[in-house]
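Researcher: Quick test of sequence recovery. Tokens follow.
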């Protein structure tokens, strides 16, 4: 896949902006109510040009929860936390999770503490009612060697401690390299899972991204049970040039998204976040309507 989201994360302001779960999302063995949310990166252009109108359309079509992917200069899509919360409240929308890249620039090595910039993000996330602060990228410089990765995994654990103080959990969202790259003979994904504490760091498994590397979510889910409170539901199809994969409407691709989603639910996942980054000629907002209908048909 030509990973537009990867380029977005590496070049946008996201990279510089940045446990006890609340009961409704606690990972507890597969029973109870699930929540379906939409990752707003799925409608990124629309959120850039008309965020109020886009959120209104999403609420009108039946979405009740969203996950942000835009926190820049202490603002969500141009709004302060106070302003954005008012917008979401007025539309009946909640935001249990959000994406902001945790980078080297957010950790003060000398002081062994997070920067004020990152602490502000965590405070704003708590104000918004988030239950997860999710970092959706790991820079090359943080995984160049085994020691580099181990050092930053300790920062992940410390971020879990920081988020826990506000009643949240810290999470990481995978792409494909975690399953295709190795250090000291082990996949980066396995190293991350083995060297972060389960009570501090949750893995937001993206079933579509990992497919690019030839990894199947149904196989990985059983390897680290209890680590997937919050997953991304994504389906994939070959790109038109046949050189990779791109996301598509749920149920129309190769991932086996329903099987994986059902398996995750049985294993305790409570928050299911829809994400679609490519649209095969359709309008993104129309795809989001289709995706929600599919999830409802599946019982979510």
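Model:
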């Amino acid at each position: 896949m030509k990973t537009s989201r990867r380029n977005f994360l590496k070049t946008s302001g996201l990279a510089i902006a940045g446990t006890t779960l609340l009961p409704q999302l606690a990972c507890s063995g597969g029973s109870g109510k699930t929540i379906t949310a939409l990752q707003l990166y799925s409608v990124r252009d629309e959120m850039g040009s008309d965020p109020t109108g886009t959120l209104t359309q999403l609420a009108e079509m039946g979405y009740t929860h969203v996950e942000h992917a835009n926190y820049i200069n202490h603002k969500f899509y141009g709004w302060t936390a106070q302003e954005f919360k008012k917008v979401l409240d007025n539309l009946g929308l909640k935001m249990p999770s959000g994406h902001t890249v945790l980078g080297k620039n957010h950790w003060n090595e000398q002081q062994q503490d997070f920067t004020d910039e990152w602490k502000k993000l965590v405070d704003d996330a708590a104000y918004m009612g988030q239950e997860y602060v999710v970092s959706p990228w790991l820079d090359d410089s943080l995984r160049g060697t085994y020691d580099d990765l181990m050092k930053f995994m300790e920062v992940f654990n410390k971020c879990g401690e920081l988020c826990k103080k506000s009643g949240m959990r810290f999470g990481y969202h995978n792409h494909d390299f975690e399953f295709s790259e190795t250090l000291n003979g082990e996949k980066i994904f396995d190293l991350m899972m083995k060297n972060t504490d389960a009570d501090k760091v949750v893995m937001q498994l993206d079933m579509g991204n990992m497919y690019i590397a030839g990894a199947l979510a149904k196989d990985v889910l059983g390897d680290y049970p209890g680590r997937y409170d919050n997953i991304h539901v994504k389906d994939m199809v070959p790109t038109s040039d046949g050189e990779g994969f791109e996301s598509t409407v749920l149920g129309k691709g190769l991932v086996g998204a329903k099987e994986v989603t059902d398996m995750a639910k049985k294993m305790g996942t409570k928050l299911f976040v829809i994400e679609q980054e490519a649209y095969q000629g359709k309008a993104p907002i129309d795809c989001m309507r289709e995706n929600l209908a599919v999830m409802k048909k599946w019982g979510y």
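The chain is about 35% helix and 20% strand.
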